[in-house]
Every structure is written in C-alpha cells, then in structure tokens.
Design a protein that fits this description.
The complex is a heterodimer of chains A (533) and B (117). By secondary structure, chain A is mainly alpha-helical. Chain A contains 21 helices and two strands. In chain A, 65% of the residues are buried. Chain B is elongated. The chains are: A mainly alpha (533), B mainly alpha (117). The interface between A and B is large, with 67 and 59 residues.
Chain lengths: 533, 117
C-alpha cells in the first residue's frame, strides 16, 4: 500500500506548487478575495465545476446511486439543473453588482449592517455543513486507503484541516481557483477512464450493462432481495416518497444558486459576459460528469454489490472501490488521490468564501462601518477566521465518524442556501418593493426554519432498534417532520417571510435605489473591472 | 454608508442619471427583451424538471416502463434533463449576444449624459 501513500504525496505536493506560484503573484484584497478579477471564462467554468465536484458529488453521489439506484440518480440530475438557474437568473447580475460577497449585493439597496451580519451568519452555517461533509469524505478515503500505513480516519480529517489552512493562509482565491481547475480536469478524466473500464467488461454493449443493473441482489433486513435499479422507489417510496422527491427538486433548483462558495466564483471574472460563458462551460463539464456518474453508480451496484459496499468502506467508498475492481490497485490509488485533492480544493474554496464573508461583511462593514483601519486588515482577519472555522469543522467531523453519506450532509447546507440566501438575493435583484425588513425576515426565517425542520425530520429523529447496526439517530423519538428533504416547506417559508415583511413596511430609500440597481445589474456600469496587469 | 462598491467613479453617473438611464427607452427595451427570453426559458426548464419528480413519485408504474432493453422511461427522462439544460444554455448564449449589443448602446449614451439634469 506504500504506492497509495506515494501517489497521495505527489498530489499534495502538486497543490502546494500551485499555491506557492499563486502566493508569489497575488497581493492586496482584490487579488486575495477575487483573484484580481482576471480569470478567463473556460478557467472559471472548470473552477465552478471543481467546486461542484466535491467529495459530496464524487464520493457521495456514486455511493448513493450504488445503494438506491434511480433514486440516487435524482441527485445527479439536481446537481446539474441548478446551474440553469444560475445561468438565467444569477451569474450576470451578481457579477455586475458584487464586490466580494452576497452581503455586497444586498447592501446596495438595504440598510447594510443587520443584513450583512445575517448574511454572514447564513454563509458560515452553509459553509460549515459543507465543510464537515468534505472532511468526513477525506477521513473515510484515508481510512480505506492508508489504514495499512497506520493512518486513521481522525488523522485524515486533521490532516485535511491543516493542509486547507495552508492553502487559504498563503494562497487566497487565485491558488484555490487554479487548484480547482486542475482538479476538475483530473476528475473528469477519471470519470471517463472508469466508465471505459466499466463498459469494457460488457464489451461496450450498453444493453447488457443496463440488463445487469435491472437485477441487483442484496440483503435487506436479512432477506435476500433482487431489485431493478432502473426503477424509481427504492428509497423514495410511499407514504412520504413523492413529496420528498419534489422537496429535493426544489432544493436543487434554488440551493446551488444560493451557495456562497459557488457565487463568489463569479466575482473572479472580468465582466458579466465572461461570467455567462463560464457558467456554460461549467454546465458542460458538470453535465458530462453527472451522466458518467449515473453509469458509475450503477456499475458499483452491479460489480461490487450493495452488500459488499456497506460491509467495507461504506457508502462513500463505492467509487474508489469500483476503481479498484475494474482497474486494480494503481487505478484505486490514482482515483483516491484525485478525490483527496478534490476535497482539499473544495474545502479551501469554502474557507475562502466563509472567511471573506466574515472579514468583509462582518468585520469591515458591520463592526467598523465600512472602513479598513489599516491597509490589508481585512485579509488578515479573513485568515484568522479561516483558522477558527477550519478548527471547528475538524472537531465536528472527527466526532461524526466515517459512516454518514457525505452527499446527505452536504444537502443540509444546500437547503439553507435555498431557503435563506436565494430568496433574499433574488428578491433584492428583481423586486422593487423589497426592503430591509424583508431581507432580515427572509434570512432569519429561512435559516432557522430549515435548521429546525432538518433537526425535527427523520435524519436526526428516529427510534433505532436495540441492536441496530450502522448509524444511530441523534434524537430517539418519532420524527415530528415526516420528510427527509425540508425544501418543500422551508423554501416557500423563506420567500413568504421576505415578501410579507416587505409588504408590511415602507422603506422609500430602498425603493428609490432600485433604478440604480437595475441599471448596474443589467449594464455593468460602475462594476469593478479586472486589476491592471 | 458601508457600500464600498458604489464608490467607484462612473462616467456620467450620479443620482439623477441612474434614473434617467432606467427610464430611457433603450433601457426599457433591453429589460423587455431580456424578460421575453428569460421568463419563458426558466418556466419551461422548471416545469420539465419538476415533471421528473412527479413522474417518479406519482406515476411509478409508468415511470418504470421499459423502453429499450431494461432501460426505463424515467431513466431516459432523467437524461433528457441534461439535454434540455444544454439546449437552454446554447439558446441563451445566442439571445445574450443581442442583449450585449443593446447594452453597448446604452452605456455609450450614458457617457454623453450631462452631470445633472
């Protein structure tokens, strides 16, 4: 297994190289937070795709499809369609309006201090959920691959935490973007390679492959069952399945369009046109990857089988184990190292958006009324915040352990984004009557509402059998809220709160500035351009 | 207050001019043209996407109908989401080229506006 360790170390060294190169090239806030706004369309497209191809989508998605068949494929579709929303509604206005954060967009028309503080809070919540998911994925990978070298799950989590802080503290947005670009290419290449290896086993007869996927045998509550993985209903079945599926869909349509670490990428390009082209690039990379992921997930079910997946490595390791089954140990080491680099890159991107939000929105604009007291102070605060948030996520991830599916963990962050960030951002850009009271109500109700519903739902509440294997529910009681996916309630709740609070109050200043916002958002007049070379 | 992004100097832009640009015919035309593409495109996309969840959740028998070999309707419909997404993206790129041309005109006129009216 020392080959795996060597491949891992080569990849980590590669990311260090990129970080060192970026650190030499960047100085100042615009460089640190927004890569100098000089990233090209195809580069940003790959970087956005890189953000999407996190531990959640590479490890979690394949595992979910391998265990739930078609019901897992809904996650692949959802991950892709989210970018249609971003393309049509968000990318260009955000590029024209934003400086570094979501708070900047909201501050155009609204009284900024409370709104910025709340936006920071929801950004940090989303980033933390997402980050914990990545850390769990990293720990599980290390556990599967390097256990023979004496490296445990906890050491993996702490190691990722430490590496991530190095990238963030020394590299900033430019380093993160380039690590994402390289990694998105490697991961796409891995997806293509694995798909070819899988289909080779079926002599490239797709019909035979899908025939195998239609009869998967595995144990369910100690009975051997045979299921068709191309039919819906393995996971989302009656009584709550249909509503849960709609709920999941709503979360995807609006969730990614409210994720701070994705939106922040549109501030790194020179103008709205580049932002638009970069979304289209991302849609092709992500879409291709998701289509391949449906094949790879089904292949893991066919070739390894759900029983074996659960017995060794768990749901998150279905992809790496498929790599081993079709390609041997070297392919396993390569794919795992790419997945590990993926996690490092996504975690670094998350850290940048979370710490930027804290430094720029909370520290500079809420506490110090929009003035930097000394040059470079906000960059310093961002780095300190990154250290604190990173430490907290490492602690939580070590307590959770490697069992929980990382995609499910990540959806918690996404539903907060869909319920709190998205309604407020969309209304701020598109509705003249929107005001500060609406933003405060939308952010508060969306954030607390989705968190409360997640806690009261079947992910956290449930009665476990006395000797049940696997994970245990945090709260041992019948769930108060029947659906796993809370978006069907929490997204309308966030929108309603924002609309009602706006209608109940009058804020002429906010309405008066809508003309300016419209002109800026649609023409790019007054937007910050690329840094001079 | 606290709005660093508005501090940038914009040629010919001040309180009155933002309103003047917003009320100009050219700008209103731009918004109308954008709406006439984006609203229907987003609506079609959303209906098509939500139909996937409805098909799988409320018509599981129909969804599980085999079309080619063992491949089901719902799997093909799931793949159609990618095709529709890419199609909308391609159409949007074409439409947006026109938005860009109109925007160039608006910016050119904005720079000729007097400092205050």
């Amino acid at each position: 297994m020392s080959v795996s360790l060597a491949v891992f170390l080569v990849f980590v060294a590669g990311t260090f190289g990129i970080t060192y190169w970026a650190a030499k090239r960047s100085s100042g806030a615009s460089a640190y937070f927004a890569a100098g706004r000089k990233i090209a369309a195809w580069q940003n497209g790959f970087a956005v795709a890189g953000d999407f191809m996190s531990a959640a989508s590479f490890l979690g998605l394949i595992g979910l499809i391998a265990l739930q068949g078609l019901d897992g494929i809904f996650y692949a579709v959802g991950g892709f369609v989210a970018f249609v929303t971003i393309l049509l509604l968000m990318a260009e206005p955000l590029r024209n309006l934003g400086k570094y954060t979501i708070g900047d967009v909201l501050a155009y028309r609204l009284s900024p201090r409370l709104v910025r503080a709340l936006a920071t809070f929801s950004t940090l919540t989303i980033a933390t959920f997402y980050m914990i998911a990545q850390m769990v994925g990293a720990g599980a990978l290390v556990n599967l691959l390097l256990a023979d070298s004496g490296i445990t799950y906890n050491m993996g989590v702490v190691g990722v935490g430490a590496l991530m802080m190095i990238y963030v503290v020394f590299g900033g947005m430019l380093a993160t973007t380039w690590v994402q670009i390289v990694k998105a290419m490697l991961l796409s290449a891995c997806g293509v390679m694995l798909t070819v290896l899988v289909l080779e086993r079926f002599q490239f007869h797709l019909i035979d492959f899908f025939a195998a996927a239609s009869q998967i045998a595995y144990h369910q509550k100690e009975h051997l069952v045979v299921r068709d993985f191309l039919q819906p209903g393995l996971h989302y079945h009656l009584p709550h399945g249909p509503v849960d599926l709609l709920s999941l869909s709503l979360m995807f349509v609006f969730g990614t369009a409210g994720m701070p670490h994705v939106l922040v990428k549109f501030y790194t390009v020179p103008d709205a046109k580049t932002a638009r082209h970069s979304v289209v690039w991302a849609m092709f990379v992500i879409g291709g990857f998701c289509v391949l992921a449906t094949v790879l997930g089904l292949a893991a079910a066919v070739i390894i089988g759900p029983d074996s997946i659960l017995a060794r490595g768990g749901t998150n390791m279905a992809g790496p184990r498929l790599a081993q089954a079709v390609g041997g140990d070297l392919v396993l080491a390569f794919v795992s190292a790419v997945a590990f680099a993926t996690i490092l890159a996504v975690v670094a991107g998350l850290m940048i958006s979370a710490s930027t939000s804290f430094a720029h929105d909370f520290w500079t604009n809420v506490i110090h009324h929009g003035r930097e007291r000394t040059a470079g102070e906000s960059v310093l605060v961002a780095r300190a915040a990154a250290l604190a948030i990173g430490g907290a996520s490492v602690l939580i991830a070590t307590r959770l352990g490697p069992g929980s599916n990382v995609l499910i963990l990540a959806t918690f962050g996404m539903v907060v984004a869909a319920s709190a960030n998205f309604p407020v951002l969309a209304l701020s850009i598109y509705w003249r009557r929107f005001n500060t009271a609406g933003a405060v109500a939308g952010l508060t109700v969306g954030l607390l509402g989705s968190l409360a519903l997640i806690l009261a739902g079947p992910n956290f509440m449930g009665v476990d059998a006395a000797h049940a294997s696997g994970g245990h529910h945090l709260i041992q009681a019948e769930p108060w809220f029947p659906y796993e996916n809370v978006g069907i309630v929490s997204v309308p709740l966030g929108f309603l709160a924002a609309v009602i609070a706006s209608l109940l109050t009058k804020e002429p200043a906010a309405e008066a500035k809508f003309d300016e916002l419209m002109v800026r958002a649609n023409t790019g007049l007054g937007a910050e351009r690329a840094a001079a070379p | 207050m606290g709005n660093a992004a508005t501090n940038e100097s914009v040629p010919g832009a001040n309180e009155n001019n933002w309103k003047a640009i917003a009320n100009s015919k050219a700008f209103k035309d731009l918004i109308a043209i954008k709406k006439s593409f984006i609203v229907p495109a987003f609506a079609i996309f959303l209906l098509h996407y939500l139909a996937l969840a409805v098909l799988a959740g409320y018509a599981p028998k129909l969804a599980a109908t085999r079309v080619i070999g063992t491949v089901t309707i719902v799997y093909l419909f799931a793949l159609s989401q990618f095709a529709v997404g890419w199609l909308i993206a391609a159409l949007y790129l074409v439409a947006a080229a026109r938005f860009d041309a109109l925007t160039v005109d608006i910016i050119a006129r904005a720079c000729e506006l007097p400092e205050a009216e």
